[in-house]
Design a protein that fits this description.
Blueprint (H helix, E strand, L loop, with lengths): L10 H24 L10 H21 L8 H15 L2 H18 L10 H18 L8 H13 L6 H18 L5 H6 L4 H18 L6 H13 L7 H16 L4 E8 L2 H14 E9 L2 E8 L2 H11 L1 E9 L18 E9 L2 H9 L3 E4 L8 H11 L1 E7 L6 H13 L3 E4 L5 H9 L7 H13 L2 E7 L4 E3 L2 E3 L4 E5 L2 E6 L2 H13 L5 E7 L6 H12 L4 E8 L5 E5 L1
Parallel strand pairs: 5-6, 5-7, 7-8, 14-15
Antiparallel strand pairs: 1-3, 1-4, 2-3, 9-12, 9-16, 10-11, 12-13, 14-16
Length: 564
């Protein structure tokens, strides 16, 4: 069905564009992943771009949902798009795309904007996007997404007409031509017989922009890439020559050597501190991209010393949502001339965790973790990516949140189509996941392991103590904003004014039904003495009940409680 075209760049156009871009990247994701050879051949550019745009879409939809009547302004929607992409950016290409969208938003949300924006503003937005993205990369390289973005902006500037559709189409055509030329600009692409993966992803996003303003879909990307494969690899698109070249390019990347870790984090810091951080990280590694502004930044770098990269962030400000990916033996990030195939593990556990502290705990226990910040649940694509990263024949998936069950089920189904045996244990809290992980034995039969883990999770009652954000009706009565809530098994059971007292009441109610072990997971904002108080309460009132305490970090809830 043809898309009803938007005439001007208003809030609805932003929403439409983001939605179409997500659909386009969803269709092209696997193809883009397959041609990803630069800066490292880790096969995730399409997935990273998809997840970045998915975060932008969620932010824009949240802005629209906040309006009972009418709709948000263009500035509201554009800023939401940019912010969503910034906080959800994944990988090198996703981080650059976030900066491209931020650059556009700086023009579209500028002071003095009118209710609708025409093609001349779109020209300026595309120019600002390309320039700001190039400035964000420590060492820009031609033949990459930066080249494609610049070509799109140049072509938009020379559009024959001044309506948004004409400008968008000119940008798309300029990007398409530039993308086809990337193998001649970057040797690793020429050896592999492919175009730049990030550039192809940007072309998909620009194609969605064309559809937004014309109602017509852009030409399918697969035909363009196949033609480049045939031209550069010296064979037909289906004869396997390009795939052989791709393997050769990966081997070349290995021989050249590259850092072993990808480090990504959000950073709250002042501009001056970020300028110093750029210098520190540039000396530590490569593929450095720092995007953002107004006190919030997304930092991406490839290094050998991941700890030093995070410590540099701590010196600059407050890093959080830290992701460290280690590319182990056999991966193209690893130095050395030989690349033995990385053998799959028999079994792995993938878990969603709400804070950095628990991420460390789960990782020490051998799990592959996906960090979920409050209000920012992971998408199914991110869970699929984690399952792939676990690199195992069998995977146990722990969503650790009742609201993530359907998302996790979709991820499990996708992973199964890729030949991975996945069992989803419907854990509703991280403390249930801890209980499941405690009885995990990878050497026993898969079904037996899953039954044991499911039983342990199901035998663990869970609770959390949090602060109410607004007035609302609950199972325990009406709460006011600022009240302390004690939720047991997902329902509000206690409303109080003191965190420690409310936690004590919740714990008493849970232990009234019996228990042998209490697990306490403290959030960063929990009172300093709460753990000591609750441990003493258990010792004095409940004989033969043990207590274990963990630090969860920025986990949203002040306190998580588990009783087994």
């Amino acid at each position: 069905m043809a898309q009803v075209p938007q005439t001007f760049f208003d809030a609805l156009a932003v929403r439409t564009w983001c939605g179409l871009a997500l659909e386009s990247l969803g269709r092209a994701r696997e193809e883009i992943d397959a041609i990803n050879v630069y800066p490292v051949a880790d096969g995730d550019t399409g997935t990273n771009l998809y997840l970045t745009v998915e975060s932008a879409v969620a932010a824009v939809e949240a802005v629209f949902a906040a309006y009972d009547v009418g709709k948000p302004t263009l500035a509201d929607a554009a800023r939401a798009m940019a912010h969503g992409a910034l906080i959800g950016a994944r990988g090198n290409s996703g981080t650059i795309l976030a900066q491209l969208l931020r650059g556009m938003a700086q023009v579209l949300a500028a002071e003095g904007e009118t209710a609708h924006t025409d093609g001349s503003a779109l020209r300026l937005a595309l120019r600002q996007a390309a320039d700001s993205a190039r400035q964000a990369v420590a060492h820009p390289v031609e033949g990459t997404v930066l080249t494609v973005a610049s070509a799109a902006a140049d072509a938009a500037g020379g559009a024959a007409h001044d309506d948004c559709g004409a400008v968008a189409r000119a940008a798309y055509e300029g990007a398409r031509v530039a993308l086809a030329e990337t193998p001649g600009q970057l040797a690793v692409l020429e050896r592999a017989g492919v175009v730049d993966a990030g550039g192809q992803g940007l072309l998909a996003v620009l194609g969605a922009l064309v559809e937004t303003f014309t109602g017509e879909a852009a030409a399918p990307l697969v035909h363009q890439v196949s033609a480049v494969h045939a031209r550069v690899a010296g064979g037909s698109p289906g004869d396997g020559t390009a795939l052989t070249s791709l393997a050769d390019a990966e081997d070349c990347a290995v021989a050249a050597g590259a850092p072993a870790f990808e480090v990504i984090y959000l950073l709250e810091a002042e501009d001056a501190a970020v300028a110093r951080l750029r210098g520190r990280l540039d000396a530590l590694g490569d593929s450095l991209v720092i995007v953002g502004g107004d006190g919030l930044w997304n930092v991406h770098v490839h290094v050998d010393d991941a700890g030093a990269a995070v410590e540099a962030g701590v010196e600059a400000g407050r890093p959080y949502r830290i992701r460290i990916t280690h590319f182990g033996a056999g991966d193209v990030h690893t130095t050395g001339a030989e690349r033995p195939p990385r053998e799959r593990a028999q079994r792995a556990v993938v878990a969603v965790v709400p804070g950095e502290g628990l991420a460390g705990l789960y990782s020490e226990a051998g799990a592959t973790t996906v960090l979920a910040r409050p209000g920012e649940p992971p998408a199914s694509g991110e869970l699929v990516q984690a399952v792939r990263r676990a690199h195992a024949r069998e995977v146990v998936l722990l969503p650790n949140d009742a609201e993530l069950r359907h998302t996790a089920a979709a991820a499990a189904e996708q992973a199964r189509t890729e030949g991975i045996r996945v069992a989803l244990i419907p854990t509703r809290s991280a403390v249930q996941g801890i209980a499941a992980l405690a009885v995990h034995e990878p050497d026993r039969r898969f079904d037996e392991d899953v039954v044991s883990m499911t039983s342990a999770a199901g035998a663990t009652r869970y609770a959390e103590v949090a602060v109410a954000e607004r007035q609302s009706w609950t199972m325990a009565g009406i709460c006011q904003a600022g009240d302390v809530l004690g939720l047991i098994d997902g329902d509000v059971a206690v409303i109080g004014t003191d965190v420690t007292a409310t936690a004590g009441t919740v714990l008493d109610r849970m232990l009234s039904a019996g228990g042998e072990l209490v697990t306490l997971v403290l959030g960063d904002e929990a009172p300093e003495t709460i753990a000591e108080h609750l441990e003493a309460r258990v010792r004095e009132s409940y004989l033969a009940v043990d207590t274990v305490v963990y630090r969860g970090g920025r986990q949203g809830a002040l306190l998580l409680i588990g009783v087994e």
